[in-house]
Amino acid sequence: MKPPPSNSEVSDIARKAGLKKIATRHLTYNRNEFTMFLEREA
Amino acid sequence: MGHDQTLMHTCETAKEKHAVTGASWLIRISEIFAGHESEIIVGLGAQALRKLGRDFHLIRIKQPEAIRHSPLARYLRWNMPVHHSWPCNPRETDGFIEKAAQALLRKFGESKAQTLICGPIDPGSPKRYDRTLASNLRGRALQLFPSEWSAIKNAEQQNPKKPSLFCLVGKEGLYAGLQSPAECDGFFPGGTKFIPQNSPDTISRAGAKIAEALHHLQLTRRPPPGGARWLEIGASPGGMTTELLAREYEVIAVDRAPLDARLKHRKGLMQFVADAADFMPPPGLTFDAMLCDMNGDARDAMRQLARLSKNLRQGGLVIFTLKLPGISSIDETTTLELRSK
Ligand SMILES: C[S@@+](CC[C@H](N)C(=O)[O-])C[C@H]1O[C@@H](n2cnc3c(N)ncnc32)[C@H](O)[C@@H]1O
């Protein structure tokens, strides 16, 4: 079994694709998960 | 010193008095992180003073910027500097609303706040008194404050970048602070916008997540305009799709499983029943925004988003639910992230 992902690994994949993280939040309707907001770099 | 000022501090505990120097702050840590609160508070370089209600914590913090800039910020649902507090039991305090409103006026009447927004420390309280206390206090206080403060009828009308006077009340007393909704990380005191999830036509409870995400997004940027085209992967059964369509967005929905039959023939929706890894966008098709709520390994999900983002326009928005196998991963996610900086 693969080890569980870390936030930074997921963020790295996004960053390499030119997706910039705006915020990572645990919102009211999130359970075992965070909501990540990203933006495609200009 | 006025009457209320004296009252305000009579209940401070010895612990609060002897706390490290620093600013007094109220933070909210979702109940799902219960058991990790001290780790989070210490990690922010703060000291816990008192727990309020189910998930608010009064802390003393030397560097309040950590609340926004630390990787631990993601465990905080909301935050506010405490510029005024009156620890007391409102129910047992004669004329609480009037005294509280007058004290707010004395302290903040001349401030540049855009409005006053009050909320309960315990929104789940079954007691009518607790549930109506916040709105009764706002009602009375706004009669006293300059009339411009009353122009904002609904929390979402606030300018996210301008300070508001936020006030939380409950059986633990009253806590108020001036800060912009963007810095607090929410338009509502405590951050929660109530979103109904149980109506009979709700396709899945996931709809509330995108509704809340789009609400929260307004703190930092404008959501995509109506008519914008979204690529949604991991869309079935379609709770989020429904929310996007309701905002007049166009949706290209991809999932191994089909969408709920109620979404069939919905205007603006194109459905692909496929594994995300096999999905190739129709040639020349670009997206204004992307959404991913796929379960499974979050790295695989992000790899698919990364691949498909070639068709996302520059500046386009991505909303991604980062699924964690267990909340025990707090330390791991945080330390790894700190190390990778
Ligand atoms: C939590 S559910 C999504 C709920 C949905 N967002 C809603 O609002 O109703 C996760 C979905 O991801 C889909 N999924 C997981 N891995 C996938 C993959 N590799 N390709 C396509 N869909 C996938 C599953 O079929 C499942 O429908």
Short description:
The complex is a heterodimer of chains A (42) and B (341). Chain A is built from one helix and two strands.
User: From N to C, what is the helix and strand string of chain B?
Assistant: HHEHEEHEEHEHEEHHEHEEEHEH
Assembly classification: heterodimer
Main sheet characteristics of chain A: 2 strands, antiparallel
Q: In what range is the share of β-strand residues of chain B? A: 15-25%
Largest interface: A-B, 37 and 55 residues
How much is the average pLDDT of chain B? Answer: 90
Terminus-to-terminus distance of chain A = 37 Å
Commentary on this structure:
The complex is a heterodimer of chains A (42) and B (341). The longest helix of chain A has 10 residues, at 7-16. By secondary structure, chain A is an alpha+beta fold. In chain A, a hairpin with a 7-residue loop joins β1 (19-25) and β2 (33-40). In chain A, strands 1-2 form a two-stranded antiparallel ribbon. The mean pLDDT of chain A is 88. Helix content of chain A is 24%, strand content 36%. The relative contact order of chain A is 0.24. Chain B has 341 residues and is α/β, with parallel strands linked by helices. Chain B folds into two domains: 3-191, VC0802-like (2-Layer Sandwich), CATH 3.30.2130; 207-339, Vaccinia Virus protein VP39 (Rossmann fold, 3-Layer(aba) Sandwich). Helices cover 28% and strands 24% of the residues of chain B. Chain B is built from eleven helices and 13 strands. Chains A and B meet through α1, β1 and β2 of A and α8, α10, β13 and α11 of B. The site of S-adenosylmethionine has 20 residues of chain B, from α9.
Detail the topology: elements first, then pairings.
The complex is a heterodimer of chains A (42) and B (341).
Chain A: H1 7-16, E1 19-25, E2 33-40
Antiparallel strand pairs in A: 1-2
Chain B: H1 3-10, H2 14-17, E1 23-29, H3 37-43, E2 46-52, E3 56-61, H4 66-69, E4 76-81, E5 84-86, H5 96-108, E6 116-120, H6 128-144, E7 164-170, E8 173-179, H7 181-184, H8 207-217, E9 229-233, H9 239-246, E10 250-255, E11 269-273, E12 287-292, H10 298-308, E13 312-323, H11 330-339
Parallel strand pairs in B: 6-7, 9-10, 9-12, 10-11, 12-13
Antiparallel strand pairs in B: 1-3, 1-4, 2-3, 5-8, 7-8
Helix pairs in contact in B: 5-6, 8-9
The complex binds S-adenosylmethionine (SAM).
